Each structure stands twice: as C-alpha cells, then as structure tokens.
Amino acid sequence: VCSSDLGGFWLLVGALLLAASVRFLLWVAVAVAVHEAGHILAIRALGGRIESLRLTGVGAVLRTRRAGLCSYREECLVALAGPLTNFLLAIVFGVALSLTLAFFPFEAWRQHNLYIFALSSLQAGVVINFGLGWLNLVPIPPLDGSKVVAYFLPGNTAWRYLGMERYGFVILLLLLFTGALGYVLGPLVSGSARGLFSLLGIL
C-alpha cells in the first residue's frame, strides 16, 4: 500500500487565485483537475489501483494499492505526471489562441467584447497552467518537485528530506507572502508563456 501526497492542493489554488482574476476561477479548477488526473493516470499506468482520495490542508492524498512496494523512481514518475499534464494543457490553450487569431483577426474583431474575453481567457489558460506546473515543481515537500529531488538522493537522506513535509506548508506560505516564490516562479511562467507564444507566431 502506498500513500502519495500530490502537492499542496489548497496552497496551489490560493496562489493561483491571487495571481489570476476571480473570473478565471473555472480555468484554475480545470488546471487543478487535469493536474490530479495526470497523477492518477500515471499510477494506473504503473499498475496501481486507487483506493481513496483525500483532500487535506497540504495536498490531495491518494492511497493506492499495487503488487510490491512503491519505489522512489515510481514516486518520481507519478509526481512528474501532474506538472507535465499542465504544461500540455498550456500548449492546448496556446494552440487554441493561435487558431482563434488566425480565423478571427484581431483588427477585425477587436470591438467585440466576447471576442476580447475569449482571447484573455485562452491567454489566462496558458499562464495558469504554466503557473501550476512550475509551482508544483518547487522542491519543497509536499510539492511534486520534492519527489523528483528525492529520487536522486540516497535512501536515508531522501527519507529525511521528505519528512520535512510537516513544515512544508508553513515554508511555502512564508515564501508566498514574502514574494520570494513569485520572484522565482515569475520568470519561469512568463518565459514559458512568451516562448510558447513566439513558437506559435502570436508574438
């Protein structure tokens, strides 16, 4: 039996809501749902079976069952699946934005409020998903990035490192409200979004 903490669920939602307008709450919910679905699909692909899902103050905790013990390698793969699905969804939003601009040129439609709302919503979908993906890769337990780091650490060191999870929520809150988290994630999120938009010919 394996128990997998899949990132700071409520912290992630709160951070994204601080960064995004409340009118984009739907995209935040979609991003979180897709993120968790990525974890679940990875668990199933590795032969696991979901026994329960529980939302806590620090994350969505999945209790799974499979033959044999969960290795750090499998924990790493499951952890990476969440952020990767967000990055893929960001690309989907970016492609949708590019197609919208191609079939409905900005200069011809710029006076239509619904058109402007659609463009801003698609752009928000890109930014929110890149934001959730990168935020989850921060190497502080219980976020997904900590599982990736643990894979490269010796057994006892990895165990002690992941044991910091009890303090992780407080650390993340301090980083969030002091602005340190935004200082690190801001360039990653904006750089990823700009890179995608440039690749799609939007910028």
Q: What's the helical proportion of residues?
A: 55-70%
Distance between the termini: 49 Å
How large is the count of helical segments?
Answer: 9
Strand order of the largest sheet: 1-3-2
Mean pLDDT: 81
Spell the H/E element sequence.
Answer: EHHEEHHHHHHH
The total beta strand count reads 3
User: What is the CA-based Rg, rounded?
Assistant: 18 Å
Binned strand content: 5-15%
| Helix-strand category | mainly alpha
Could you give a short account of the major beta sheet?
3 strands, antiparallel
Shape: elongated
Low-confidence stretches: none
Question: Which helices and strands, and how do they pair?
Answer:
Layout (H helix, E strand, L loop, with lengths): L1 E4 L3 H11 L5 H21 L3 E7 L4 E6 L6 H32 L2 H4 L3 H24 L7 H8 L3 H8 L2 H14 L1 H20 L4
Antiparallel strand pairs: 1-3, 2-3
Describe this structure as you would to a colleague:
A three-stranded antiparallel beta sheet has the order 1-3-2, with helices on one face. The mean pLDDT is 81. It has nine helices and three strands. 70% of the residues lie in helices and 8% in strands. It has helices spanning 9-19, 25-45, 72-103, 106-109, 113-136, 144-151, 155-162, 165-178, 180-199, and strands at residues 2-5, 49-55, 60-65. The protein is elongated, with a radius of gyration of 18 Å. It is mostly helical and 203 residues long. Helix 1 (9-19) packs antiparallel against helix 2 (25-45). A hairpin with a 4-residue loop joins strand 2 (49-55) and strand 3 (60-65).
